[in-house]
From TrEMBL:
Gene Ontology MF terms in the entry: metal ion binding; metalloendopeptidase activity
UniProtKB keywords: Hydrolase, Metal-binding, Metalloprotease, Protease, Zinc
GO cellular component: membrane
Superkingdom of the source species: Eukaryota
Protein name: Peptidase M48 domain-containing protein
Cofactor note: Binds 1 zinc ion per subunit.
Family affiliation: Belongs to the peptidase M48 family.
Length: 411
């Protein structure tokens, strides 16, 4: 028993394990049987395995909690998820209510007109891609690993698109030109109202009494100008501009007018935008990046546990983990995803009977709006030269399809 106690009281000196006894004992082969336990790499491997297992089970717990939430009440789960995503894009008013465009608005009507057509075309596109791969497999005699993977992902895409309803979109009343799909809420396209028209406050060139303007009064407020003096305007403050409106005076430089700029101007341009978003679903892009993100987090934990015995680096990196995973894994993938979604988007557009030649013009138009609003469709979807070139390359094929579609439609 005493010998066992002595064996456990191990100390480490210069990387060699010795038994602590009253007098120094030269490390002899008799006691080396415990040495393996103090082996640095063994300990690190065990630690990595432990953390790996831990992260897998944490993911598992999260996954099953999510899954049970979905199973308990799918509609409520989607509603909650939609609300949290709307919050992310600031589509909430001061009272905390989601800001969505009215059903009767021009914007909602436009999406209602175009989405069913592009959805149908996206489903057809999945069928075309499946046939292409199956033909290739027939010629080779057997499916390669990548082909098998592509077929699996198309199968998932088909399921997702088949259950994507014609009202699978949310039109948020937000003044930024953006649209996106996310694997967090499948079968829904988020469209910002700013995609159609954005408002901005501009310096007025000329003003006159009676003009409706915005004035700087604890933030920009609506007002109606009444009369002018040398440096100032007197104005009636308020939305209703009724008789009980408060009269104020403002400096001339604190007066702005509301300017509206149109972006997506016709159904063709809207079709391209929606087709691009559906193309992400066709190629299963969200699914891939979610997987990669989870793998990145787990891998990071394991690597850190091996390379960082003090835990200091781990602590620092944990804080930045989200950003690191995003920049290292998700964004580079995102960029080539965008090109693929453009090319497929063009084809979907053409299949739906919208002229794909409008697409590149449409990107140029968006580039004009970079810089003065929040994230735009072109910053989440950077309009790089490479991207525009890829679009042009894909155009010829899409135009051919569009002509075929037109011929089919012709009496
Ligand atoms: Zn995209």
């Amino acid at each position: 028993m005493a010998a066992f106690g002595r064996q456990l009281a191990l100390t480490r000196t210069s990387g060699v394990c010795q038994i602590a006894t009253g007098s120094p004992v030269a490390p002899g082969p008799t006691f080396r049987v415990w040495d393996f336990w103090n082996n640095r790499w063994l300990r690190r491997t065990l630690r990595a395995a432990r953390i790996g297992a831990l992260s897998v089970s944490i993911f598992g717990v999260g996954y099953s909690t999510g899954a049970s939430d979905v199973l308990a009440d799918p509609t409520e789960f989607r509603r909650k998820k939609a609300l949290s995503l709307l919050k992310n894009i600031h589509a909430f008013d001061a009272e905390g209510k989601a800001r969505l465009c009215e059903e009767t608005s021009e914007e909602v009507q436009a999406v209602r007109r175009v989405l069913p057509r592009v959805l149908k075309a996206a489903r057809a596109q999945v069928g075309i891609l499946q046939e292409e791969i199956q033909d290739a497999i027939k010629q080779q005699g057997e499916a390669s690993y990548t082909q098998q993977q592509d077929l699996d992902s198309l199968k998932r895409a088909r399921k997702r698109l088949e259950s994507w309803s014609d009202d699978g979109f949310l039109l948020a009343d937000v003044n930024t030109p953006n649209a996106f799909v996310t694997p967090m809420l499948p079968r829904t396209i988020f469209v910002h109202r700013g995609i159609f028209r954005i408002h901005r406050l501009a310096e007025p060139e000329a003003l006159h009494a009676g003009a409706e303007v915005f004035v700087l009064q604890d933030g920009w407020k609506k007002a109606k100008l009444v009369s002018e003096s040398q440096e100032q305007w007197s104005a009636l403050l308020g939305d209703s501009l009724g008789e009980d409106s408060e009269t104020i005076t403002v400096k001339k430089e604190d007066v702005r007018i509301l300017q509206t700029r149109n972006l997506v101007e016709n159904d063709e341009q809207l079709a391209m935008l929606l087709s691009h978003e559906l193309a992400h679903a066709v190629h299963d892009h969200g699914y891939e990046s979610l997987n990669i993100l989870t793998t990145a987090y787990s891998l990071e934990l394991v690597l850190l546990s091996v390379l960082d015995p003090t835990g200091m680096l781990e602590f620092l990196l944990e804080i930045a983990a989200g950003a690191i995973a995003r920049y290292a894994f998700v964004l580079p993938l995102g960029r080539c995803d965008e090109m693929e979604a453009d090319a497929t988007g063009l084809k979907i557009c053409a299949l739906a009977g919208y002229d794909p030649r409008l697409a590149t013009k449409f990107l140029d138009r968006f580039a004009l709006f970079e810089g003065y609003t929040g994230p735009t469709w072109t910053s989440t979807h950077p309009a790089t030269e490479a991207r525009i070139k890829a679009l042009k390359d894909a155009e010829a094929d899409a135009v051919e399809r569009f002509q075929q579609h037109k011929e089919k439609q012709a009496p």
